[in-house]
Design goal:
This protein is α+β, with helices and mostly antiparallel strands and 667 residues long. The chain contains 16 helices and 21 strands. The strands form 6 sheets. A 5-stranded antiparallel beta sheet has the order 2-1-7-6-3, sandwiched between helices. Strands 11-10-14-13-12 form a 5-stranded antiparallel beta sheet, sandwiched between helices. A 5-stranded mixed beta sheet has the order 16-18-19-21-20.
Length: 667
């Protein structure tokens, strides 16, 4: 029997129920599939972003260790006896000093070579001295006068000369690894070293040798374990670590917390072939799921390069994929469970509704059959018209009500979205201000401590240097040098004053002020200075600004700082536009400073209020002015923002709340 014939034989109620079931089944299936795909994609994408963020953290830690070795070498070359050791081979004093340095900084070796590259002193227990180390590129560059720090590959023989135990540490058996590029070597005979070298200079500034030192990465469990603890805090999933960290020499794991099936660290295993080709051959960053020894990880690899930009290895961070797939599966199962429950509830509700809808029609059919049977006493027409009219009227009323409800809901939805957006934007701004204030407060405490510790010895240096200059006759050979010491000490004292001013939060002396009056008084103090002669000052000050409660002195300091910064940015030539207005939306007065200077690079705009950040040339600023201005405005419950376009200029905008009453003094 054809399907349409079968459907016609069914009752209206049954056909309606079947139609609803088909629609619900198809719609529910499509919704479940699409929803599951969205959930899965979102979770796995977030997991991949987590791995990329973790790699950035690991890279910073790795690079910081390399940089710290460079700083150690740079400071150690000035130590006692280092020059004598490099020039005359008298290394007793240097040996004592550098042995202590090597122990304190946990270096594997720290070595002095003379100007020809011949080793004069090795601080590690070793076979001796007298060999030539100019084969090391960093040594050659240090002898040329540069301080260099990077990750380099050294052979086992080279490492054994520096410290006998290092040669055995790098020699490891290479393990055949699934999905890896087949290798011809079976034993690793070189090592990845964080190494730095710096020149040793005599009193005349001539390079007389080099000091170099380093740390072997191979087998250093504490290095990767430190990163792992910082990132994952020992968390596991089904007995497996949720995160892994590895340093590769070439494609071989030389420092890792990846475990093999027997629980041992997977040293000597290789990276998979796709990662090998992308990172080591093409120098690309590789971010995807990867098979690591025996599990799939959401992984990020990036190349490690030496000082000549050659790829010497890789840095890897991965998170266990099964942890996120388990989360994804739980969410999807919950999604399907909710959908199934909803489907069953909808079926039950639909059945009741259809039965109620079709009952009047059934009654009309029964009445029609009674008339057809000859029982003419049935007032079908009147009854039918009454039921149909009532049904039509009810439907029309319902439809009209639904339309009104829909319009109201859409309007409420738009209003709610706008309110949510406003509150979200306000929350983001508040969070940014809180974070900035907390950072400034922390740096302020640090600055106060540093300035206090530096100020006393600096005063002694300045006083003694000045007295020495006065005692030297004109034309004395050392007089220019001492005068330069005095100038630089004066500059240091200026920086210390800035630090103290930045860290000191003095009490606000609040009073009701007119912003235009404060602006006029401040500009009158500086308008006749030479720096402003070639600056065109344009002022657009709104009349009748409402009064604000502010500390007039500190507000003048903010205005002065912004005006001077603008003039310096224009190199004392250009147009400075200052405008004031009332902002009714925020019930605040606004003051804008717009210059035609060189502008601020986009990557620097977010940092202009950070302490010690400056785009001025060396010696032209301390980087504290805008931080102090930010703190003053914030303590006035206001905001200060910056807009800039490179080559066209910069606008600083200050907004202060209107208030005629003077609040209690704030600190």
């Amino acid at each position: 029997m054809p399907l349409d014939e079968t459907l016609r034989r069914l009752s209206l109620k049954t056909r309606l129920i079947i139609s609803y079931l088909v629609i619900l089944a198809v719609g529910g299936l499509v919704t479940s599939i699409v929803g599951s795909w969205i959930v899965s994609t979102t979770i796995m994408r977030q997991a991949q972003r987590t791995a990329e963020h973790d790699l950035a953290t690991a890279r910073i830690i790795f690079q910081d260790r390399v940089a710290s070795i460079g700083r150690t070498v740079q400071l150690a070359v000035t130590g006692a006896g280092v020059v004598d050791c490099a020039v005359r081979g008298e290394c007793a004093s240097a040996g004592n000093h550098l042995t202590g340095v090597r122990g304190e900084t946990l270096l594997d070796f720290l070595t002095i070579a003379d100007a020809r590259g011949v080793v004069r002193l090795r601080t590690a227990p070793t076979r001796g001295v007298g060999d030539t180390v100019t084969v090391l590129p960093l040594v050659r560059e240090a002898l040329a006068g540069d301080v260099v720090a990077s990750s380099e590959i050294l052979t086992a023989d080279q490492l054994e000369r520096e410290a006998p135990d290092l040669g055995g540490q790098v020699r490891m058996r290479l393990v055949e690894t699934p999905r890896a590029v087949p290798g011809r070597d079976t034993v690793l005979s070189s090592g990845l070293v964080m190494i730095a070298a710096g020149p040793i200079r005599d009193a005349g500034g001539r390079v007389v040798g080099t000091l170099y030192g380093g740390v072997l990465v191979n087998g250093r469990e504490e290095m990767v374990d430190r990163v792992w603890e910082l990132l994952y805090r020992g968390e596991t999933h089904r007995g497996k670590q949720i995160g892994t960290v590895t340093v590769f020499q070439g494609d071989v794991r030389v420092a890792t917390n990846v475990r093999t099936a027997d629980g041992a660290r997977a040293l000597g295993t290789r990276v998979s072939a796709p990662v090998h080709d992308a990172v080591l051959l093409r120098g690309e960053r590789w971010s995807n799921r990867a098979f690591v020894v025996q599990d799939w990880y959401l992984s990020v690899y990036e190349p490690l390069r030496n000082h000549r930009n050659e790829i010497v290895g890789m840095l890897y961070v991965g998170v266990l994929e099964s942890r996120f797939t388990a989360i994804r599966n739980r969410v999807i199962l919950s999604f399907f469970g909710i959908a199934t429950t909803g489907f069953i509830l909808i079926i039950a509700i639909t059945y009741v509704m259809i039965r109620n809808i079709t009952r009047p029609i059934g009654e009309m059919v029964a009445a029609t059959r009674n008339i057809s049977a000859g029982r003419l006493d049935q007032e079908i027409q009147a009854t039918a018209q009454g039921e149909v009219a009532l049904l039509a009227e009810s439907f029309n009323t319902m439809a009209k009500s639904l339309r009104h409800m829909k319009d109201d809901l859409e309007e409420w939805g738009r209003t709610l979205e706008e309110k949510v957006k406003e509150r979200t934007d306000e929350l983001v701004r508040m969070q940014a201000r809180v974070a900035q204030s907390e950072r400034l407060a922390s740096l302020g405490m640090l600055a106060a401590g540093v300035a206090h510790e530096i100020n006393n010895p600096l005063g002694g240096i300045l006083a003694l240097a000045a007295l020495t200059v006065e005692d030297l006759p004109e034309g004395h050979a050392n007089r220019p040098n001492l005068e330069e010491v005095v100038r630089q000490a004066e500059r240091c004292r200026t920086i210390v004053r800035g630090l103290l001013e930045f860290s000191r939060q003095s009490e606000l002396h609040m009073e009701v002020v007119d912003l235009n009056r404060v602006l006029d008084d401040t500009l009158a103090l500086i308008a006749k200075q030479a720096a402003f002669f070639n600056v065109e000052l344009v002022r657009h000050q709104a009349d009748g600004l409402p009064p604000i409660a502010a500390d007039q002195s500190q507000l003048s300091q903010v205005i002065l700082n912004l005006v001077v910064n603008a003039v310096q940015a224009m190199e004392e030539r250009g147009t400075l536009t200052i405008a004031t207005r009332y902002d009714p939306a925020h019930d605040a007065v606004e003051m804008a400073f717009t210059d035609t200077g060189r502008g601020i690079a986009p990557e620097d705009v977010g940092r202009v209020f950070d302490p010690f950040f400056t785009t001025k040339t060396n010696g032209q600023g301390t980087g504290l002015g805008l931080s102090i201005a930010y703190g003053i405005v914030t303590r006035h419950h206001g905001t200060i923002t910056v807009e800039s376009e490179v080559g066209r200029g910069t606008t600083f905008r200050i907004r202060l709340p209107v208030g005629g009453a003077v609040p209690e003094a704030a600190t």
